[in-house]
Amino acid sequence: MNRLTRKFSPRAARALLAATVGAAAFAVAASAQAEPQGFLETIKHHTTLINTVPDNGDQNPYAIVVAPVSAGTVKKGDVLVGNFNNSTNLQGTGSTIINYHPDTKQMTVFATVPRDLKECPGGIGLSTAMTMLKSGWVIVGSTPSNDGTTGTKGAGCLIVIDPQGKIASTISTPNINDPWGNMAVVDNGTSATLFLSNAGFGVGGADGNPPVFKQATVLRLDLDVPEGKPPVVKKETVIGSGFGAQADRGVFLVGPTGLALSADQKLLYVSDAIGNRITEIDDPLTRDTSAGVGRQLTADGLLHRPLAMVTAPNGHLLVTNALNGQVVEIDPATGKQLYARWIDTDKAQSPPGNGDLFGIAMTPEGDGFYYVEDDVNTLVLAK
């Protein structure tokens, strides 16, 4: 008999239906289980894009910013990378920002800041604090040194650079002391809000066993951005304080580094390197007082001195580790640390990648992220 026309008894029909429904339910469950639980699961490849050393020999890449617009010599989607060391590898003396062009796979120098910029207390050493606004202005932090050590460091400043790479102005106030970590930014075009960590208060030389000073801050700068003119500070507010910072011979400073906003902008996440934790500050855009170190979101576990931080498209936080070559994914809704993914396995360091990772930035499409390996001066794409 043709099985397409075979007749079933009622009992057999019910059994077949139950089996079919069960199989379908199993298939749905299996499918759901196969769905990525986090962003790092979707990353398959790591591609080295360029060596970041320009003609003047600057090295030790720190900051990474993906251009949000085309302006001047910068195209939307270009990747700007700042250098913290000079050609002799002295920390706090780097003065160049290079521009990687993904469309041509070429590198150019976007800006070279004068080392003796008098408006910047202590001179120039370009830190991880950098952003590009929708208006085309680039703002970068300086955490400078005369001899590569914190014993001669200055308070530094923020440097405002036009889209052609020319210095336009500086921002220097008593609340700015060694702008250190990657910025979180809210950009409305004619106005912008920058969140900046400052790790220099109280910190001196790195000889012996340097003390931890619990004086590092998170500063909110509200900017006006007049058309055709450099941004100016309208208001400044210390919204976080009491974070630990310490001089360090190997990495210059250890202090709060990563800043990232929640999707609804009601929380600012801070990577507290000394405390080996991530904290959160309520109402960062509107509060007019310091929240201290904020509320602890997560600590220890997969974190090994958390550094730069960025928000993935799924709302999770991606945080680079200073003491190994891993990036950690955190669900901020629960504080759960989901994964630690090796992105630098260089065994020249122990553990592999120790001290190599600094800046991190999402691709414009949100399908991957850029990061730097500062030991070999490279920009890498993970996707």
Task: Looking at this protein, list some descriptive labels.
1 helix; 383 residues; mainly beta; Neuraminidase; globular; five-stranded antiparallel beta sheet; 25 strands
How would you summarize this macromolecular structure in one to three sentences?
By secondary structure, the chain is mainly beta.
Describe this structure in words.
This protein is mainly beta. It has one domain: TolB, C-terminal domain (Neuraminidase), CATH 2.120.10.30. It is 7% helix and 42% strand. The protein is built from 1 helix and 25 strands. It has one helix at residues 10-34; strands at 46-51, 59-66, 79-85, 96-101, 106-112, 126-132, 138-142, 157-161, 167-171, 184-187, 191-198, 213-224, 232-248, 252-254, 259-261, 267-272, 277-282, 295-299, 306-311, 317-321, 326-331, 336-342, 357-362, 369-373, 378-382. The strands form 6 sheets. It has a 5-stranded antiparallel beta sheet with strand order 10-11-12-13-14, with no helix packed on it. The longest helix has 25 residues, at 10-34. The model is unreliable at 1-33 (pLDDT under 50).
